[in-house]
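input
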Amino acid sequence: MFSTRGSPPRMLQFTSFGSTFWGTLRRCENETQKFGPRRCRTVRAASAVLVLVGVRPGVNCSNATVATANMNPESFAAGERLVSPAYVRQGCEARRTHEHLIRLLLEQGKCPEDGWDESTLELFLHELAIMDSNNFLGNCGVGEREGRVASALVARRHYRFIHGIGRSGDISAVQPKAAGSSLLNKIANSLVLDIIKMAGVHTVTNCFVVPMATGMSLTLCFLTLRHKRPKAKYIIWPRIDQKSCFKSMITAGFEPVVIENVLEGDELRTDLKAVEAKIQELGSDNVLCVHSTTSCFAPRVPDRLEELAVICASYGVPHIVNNAYGLQSSKCMHLIQQGARVGRIDAFVQSLDKNFMVPVGGAIIAGFNDSFIQEISKMYPGRASASPSLDVLITLLSLGSNGYKKLLKERKEMFSYLSIQLKKLAEAYDERLLHTPHNPISLAMTLKTLDEHRDKAVTQLGSMLFTRQVSGARVVPLGAVQTVSGYTFRGFMSHTNDYPCAYLNAASAIGMKTQDVDLFIKRLDKCFKIVRKEQNRESDGSGVDNDQTEDVVIEEMGLKLENVSLDKFENSSS
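output
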């Protein structure tokens, strides 16, 4: 966990790579009060490693005397006896460039403006890894958890960070056996906090990466609130048809109170009067929190966070925001910032994979109250995997803040481009793009002409897109009924009981490219043509039309050939 509370910088200033490690370790030691006056074993163990390679505490190494964990001054001097001193000095200067980047990261705790090259990244990760006890030369482990790994491939996959992060009582605590992993965790949290501020939530004070996806991370927030509000049993939840956020409340042991959305034009929006009336009906002490949502599938749009935050502040009810893939949207982040400014938002949770393009399995829990975020981190039982922290650290250092800003800008451009292209296609088939200006990520296109002819035509279109390697698009038929954890939802997937029409969803998420949009529109167009031909054949009543059947077969063969050609192209380009 990384906090910005207080005016002094959290990273101590030093003039060398080695002494910056000392400063950061001292900070970790100071934050771990439970060890009292005795130096934390983490610091003692890592200090031994640094001393062995020539980095000593309190030493201010000048540029002419570089001390690092791989090549200390004595090592360079020995090298000069084997290779020309001029060449060694040149190599020293080149290495100093890498060290300067690492030193700035440790001093400032912010995402670098420009991304690092792979050699700097691997040097940094190696320096951290050799500070963990499982990588000590001559280490003798006699405990049940000593960082032993049977497969060398597994060890390399994790850059030899085997001990994970945190301790049994706090996921953000410094781990005695793993100074390097502890530093990795602190730095990852620091960079993520910097990115959240850059994305629009400027007053966030604390955050931490948790090795669970969004749903379980929301559950952790609810369980933390349970200790603060022991009488509460209800969570007020403006409806969004997504199973994991609903099950997060059930798993935590609370009863969701579903607030149906109201239809305004094409958009589904928060029923504020119903939320306030339900708080009054149940009693504020019996309500654990309001569980709102930003990022969602159109035609639902982000909840009215400002108004909900004001209601929560008025009744003294906590407010947890599901911001799953909202970090990539300036509009979603602005809603969170404004909600915290005018009312109450206790925590907001976002997915790592959806916002940073890393493997599934991590989330960020952030908030505006430092102590509450610390309470959430202490609620996590046991140590945790370092993989999500490592993944996001590598990604952000590779991209730099400028690289991430570029991705955010490109996503906005792709949203506009997707909107234009989808609108053109919809009009060509007598459909229309639903007007959902408050949703900055997802779009929806009506499927009225398909639904009027045949009930199964809508789901058939979805199946055809999937078999043609179009992922992420959703078709939403009318009247679907789904039971989730004992609760039955009518019109499931449409976020309301009776939306006026069936529709198709597509989203512009971070990382999308122009060719993705073009290929999607092309394949959707072909699928529409095939479905329409089948509808025309059925409406003719003949049931058999050799010419039309032949056309359909040709279309199918063309799509298959296109998929094969695409696969060959992608393989050759990679």
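quick obs: The two ends are 37 Å apart (CA to CA).
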